[in-house]
Amino acid sequence: MATRIRPSSKRCAVIGGSGFLGRHLVERLVEKGYSVAVFDIAQRYDIPGVTFHQGDLCDKQALLKVLKDVSLVFHCASPSPACDDRTLFWKVNVEGTRSVIQACQEAGVQKLVLTSSASVVFEGADIKNGKEDLPYAKRPIDYYTETKIHQEKIVLEACNKEKDFLTVAIRPHGIFGPRDPQLVPILVDTARKGKMKFIIGDGTNLVDFTYVENVVHGHILAAEHLKADSPLCGKAYHITNDEPIRFWDFMSQVLVGLGYDAPRYHLPYALVYGIAILLWLITSLLRPLVNIKPTFTPMRVALAGTHHYYSCYRAKQDMGYQPVVRLQEAIARTVASYPHLKSGS
Ligand SMILES: NC(=O)C1=CN([C@@H]2O[C@H](COP(=O)(O)OP(=O)(O)OC[C@H]3O[C@@H](n4cnc5c(N)ncnc54)[C@H](OP(=O)(O)O)[C@@H]3O)[C@@H](O)[C@H]2O)C=CC1
Ligand SMILES: CC(C)CCC[C@@H](C)[C@H]1CC[C@H]2C3=C(CC[C@]12C)[C@@]1(C)CCC(=O)C[C@@H]1CC3
Fold it and tell me: Is 144 known to be catalytic?
């Protein structure tokens, strides 16, 4: 009987490796001596030694070609939360993730590390020091969150020691850092439109913002600690900066760092949330005719006006996680990385 030769444990693939988190992950893996294949719907950069495979993760045959001599897969692809397209979220995050799991199993991949999200337990109400045993949101706040819940469940349920296929999910929260296309650009765009004058609520709500290098560190630790006899098998892990900060202090530090005024005037949370729901309803009804993207979506308002910070005690215990870049240093590096978004430029 022919014995299957296992690929080296340092041969990995990053699905979604052209994205914000994915590219930082690829760069760190290369520094650590991994051989990396990127699978993504688009190729946006070139790194010597990294092979790129352009394709849709819903296409199992295309995935199989890339995964056949890989032992470890990171899955960090998703449509952007801003796209609000339920059909696309289900197709990519749920059906596509099933095809990733099947392709991994058929190709003999041993480990799958999923980038999930701490928002899988967020329903719009306060979460203070939330642990991984919080129940999944029963009424997810948007389609993105709804499908991230299903995605995490199917990946964790696929963990099977007998089949030599181990899975783990990383749940980051509020990732930021150089090249992030969401947080800082949306913030600056809102400030430039003159809409960043108001604080939603009393401004004391604490939130986790997690520097991208810490999220990368959590992913690699998880991959390296994921073994048949380890507690990581089939579990989810919060990865944060472990320094919750007032949402509005974080926003103000980024804005002031880039030369914009910090928001000053307070608006009641319930009022802004109500307006955001109304706008979402109107834009959904008008969508067949015009595609308007409101700045203040119910999700963003809920994130801006409630406490949502998470414990990463489990990651510290099971994989020795500690953030590698502290929050103030992370904010300074991020601000410095966006010279083109400075006020007046
Ligand atoms: N950013 C954040 O604050 C947080 C993010 N996460 C999770 O982290 C992961 C990475 O997020 P982030 O880096 O911010 O996102 P990005 O959008 O920057 O990266 C995702 C990448 O996946 C690609 N992609 C999308 N659909 C497919 C597909 N069908 N097949 C192959 N590739 C595809 C995207 O291409 P394209 O751009 O062309 O769509 C993009 O290159 C996601 O799973 C997200 O849910 C979790 C918590 C917080
Ligand atoms: C308009 C302003 C009141 C707020 C602008 C900042 C927001 C763009 C960001 C603040 C928190 C961010 C966040 C995410 C996206 C960008 C923010 C809303 C996620 C929804 C991205 C995907 C996730 O999995 C969870 C994130 C939580 C925090």
Answer: yes
Distance 300 CA to ligand 2 centre (A): 6
Place of tokens 């098998």: 233
| ipTM value | 0.94
pLDDT tens per residue, range 248-284: 999 999 999 999 999 999 999 999 999 999 998 998 8
Q: Is pLDDT of 299 > 70?
A: yes
What mean pLDDT, rounded, does the chain reach? 95
The torsion angles phi and psi of 334, rounded to 5 degrees, stand at -65, -50
Q: What is the pTM of this model?
A: 0.95
CB 117 within 8 A of CB 173: yes
Residue located via tokens 């010597």: 48
Å from CA of 332 to ligand 1 middle? 24
Distance CA 273, CA 289 (A): 25
- Among 78, 145, 215, which is best to mutate for testing ligand 1, by the most ligand atoms less than 8 A from CB? 78
Q: Tokens representing 120?
A: 């899988």
Burial 189-206 (b: 16+ CB within 10 A, else e): ebbeeeebeebbbebebb
Cα separations in angstroms, 254 against 187, 199, 212, 304: 9, 15, 16, 15
Question: How many whole angstroms from 301 Cα to the centroid of ligand 2?
Answer: 9
For 89-132, the pLDDT digits (tens) are 999 999 999 999 999 999 999 999 999 999 999 999 999 999 99
Contact 218 CB / ligand 1 (< 6 Å): no
